[in-house]
């Protein structure tokens, strides 16, 4: 169970933005998709989950673990949260090999000193994602799909309680996107941790939305019956457009 209550206000230039969301993602939903227009609060929610941004009020709980609770004065630092975060641009360190990048969650500020058990774990994670043979390569020496796998391997190597994926396929061409979407779905079936995915792609919602959370202008609501509702529409895009029109009604 992931329980969120997030309030965060800030000003982007002259435009104020207020995030105010409250929802739960139940254990029956192994993977949830945050869907909505740009600037609606999805990435800010993910930054709060990861500990990169501190909310003004609310709480974040994953199972029995409280990561943030304003009323109780709890704020677990990003280094101690055990959150696997795959950034939209993958954010691989360009001067480090794939092995060093994947080992980074365990080695921290000494990524070039990867030895023994940490080296073996990083190599095993690369092997699991099918790129073990590229361990010594730099990010600039591999393809976009391989960089995506390396970024996912690094996120998983943190032994996370929660996996966060920010637009994981947006930088890929359509055919590669479809193939890697299938690979990630197979991988998620083997994992025992929940995942939260940000996406603007209706096909991602169809593939991963065990739970769907619709965002709009700083607010959010869950759609617990998405799978049943989807059966009434020819495409995921039409179904999501219907839901968004309901929001605006």
TrEMBL record:
Q: Which residues cross the membrane?
A: none
Q: Which UniProt keywords apply?
A: ATP-binding, Nucleotide-binding, Transport
Instruction: Keyword check for Protease, yes or no.
Output: no
| Tagged with keyword Transport | yes
Domain ABC transporter residues, every copy: 1-242
Q: Which Pfam families match?
A: ABC_tran (PF00005)
Which GO-annotated molecular functions does the record name?
A: ATP binding; ATP hydrolysis activity
Q: What is this protein called?
A: ABC transporter domain-containing protein
- Organism, by scientific name, is uncultured Desulfovibrio sp
Upper classification of the organism: Bacteria, Pseudomonadati, Thermodesulfobacteriota, Desulfovibrionia, Desulfovibrionales
């Amino acid at each position: 169970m992931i329980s969120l209550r997030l309030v965060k206000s800030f000003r982007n230039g002259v435009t104020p933005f207020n995030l105010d969301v409250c929802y739960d993602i139940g254990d029956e939903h192994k993977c949830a998709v945050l869907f909505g227009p740009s600037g609606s609060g999805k990435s800010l929610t993910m930054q709060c989950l990861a500990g990169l941004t501190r909310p003004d009020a609310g709480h974040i709980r994953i199972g029995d673990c409280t990561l943030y609770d304003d009323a109780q004065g709890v704020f677990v630092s990003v280094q101690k949260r055990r959150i696997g975060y795959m950034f939209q641009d993958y954010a691989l360190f360009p001067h480090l090999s794939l092995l060093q990048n994947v080992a980074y969650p365990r080695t921290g500020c000494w990524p070039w000193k990867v030895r023994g058990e940490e080296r073996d774990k990083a190599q095993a994670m690369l092997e699991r994602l099918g790129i073990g043979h590229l361990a010594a390569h730099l990010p600039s020496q591999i393809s976009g799909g391989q960089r995506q796998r390396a970024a996912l391997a690094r996120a998983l190597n943190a032994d996370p309680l929660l996996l966060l994926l920010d637009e994981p396929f947006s930088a890929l061409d359509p055919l590669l996107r479809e193939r890697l979407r299938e690979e990630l779905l197979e991988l998620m079936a083997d994992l025992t941790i929940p995942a939260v995915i940000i996406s603007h792609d209706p096909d991602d919602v169809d593939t991963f939305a065990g739970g769907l959370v619709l965002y709009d202008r700083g607010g959010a609501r869950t759609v617990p019956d998405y799978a049943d509702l989807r059966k009434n529409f020819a495409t995921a895009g039409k179904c999501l457009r219907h839901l968004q029109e309901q929001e605006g009604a």
